[in-house]
Amino acid sequence: MTILINTLIIVIGLILAIAIIILFPIIKIFHTSSVCRKPPEDHLPELTHNLYRHVAVLSKEIGSRSLKEYENISKAQNYIETFLQGICFPYELQSYVVNGKTYSNVIAALPGSDNPPETIVIGAHYDTILDTPGADDNASAVAVLLEMCRALQNYSPGKTIKLVFFTLEEPPIFDTEKMGSWIFAKDAKKRGEEICFMISLDMLGYYSDKEKGQQFPLSLTNMFYPTTPNFILVVGDTSSRHMVTLTADKIRQACTLNVENLTVPRFFPGIKLSDNLSFWKMGYKALMITDTAFFRNPNYHTTKDTIDTLNFDKMTSLCEGLVAMTKDLSRQ
User: Fold this and answer.
1) CATH code matching the domain that covers 32-330, chosen among 3.40.630.10, 3.20.20.150, 3.40.50.1580, 3.40.1190.20
2) Fewer beta carbons within 10 Å, N or C terminal of the chain?
């Protein structure tokens, strides 16, 4: 009995130690001050102003877009559809029912010419946590994806490109079969669609020049990556190593934003907390592009996740890089 008790104490101690190692960097970030920025000046590129307008509509005019705020999540879906209609970009809805209400993924596709056909999926979720404006999480990525649609609308790719606005990613739906990305990935698997890889865009707008404003789940990681949160991260699991490196390289070649890449096992904290998880579960290669969320942004999942904390200059550069990346990867 004594041996059993001692073993139990050791196990509990190890679990607590691991939890402290993982949570300590996050706690540090939540105790830092947030950046605050002014709206883009008139002389800045049109793309910058377009990104700002998208985030303003989603986070300010519509506001919180959660499972319990059906009217608002419907308004967000309608905004996406209206934009695509305005630029004459064909799209379709993938609808399903949760708690008696209909939710939809919005799928804008550019058919490829390759034979046999392959598909690249680039997606961003448009819902939020309850009672949060969700400017960085995830209006920033929705805005970038909308402008990618505009830039790519007349492009003729080799591989089929699907730009997907996912519904219902956030808790309490996260990691369930009711996630929009789960519905999409499961249907693609059932139809035998050859998705060569998926890219999840999740939180793309928070940047700072504050030294030690960037944390990672393991302190050792900070020895190899910047401690100033002025970069974008391309991250994936070990099976996606090649695509992580290639994607990061393509973005670097086309934008001025600092780009880092990280390939780690799936148990590494944080890398499963987006729509790429659904594609992994279906056996597809997938990666995430992110500003690293709660490892730098103290406003994560709070009412302070507002438009005035985002850097639209860097979002502009990233959007340009993502468009170039998409074109390059669709031809390979």
Assistant:
1) 3.40.630.10
2) N
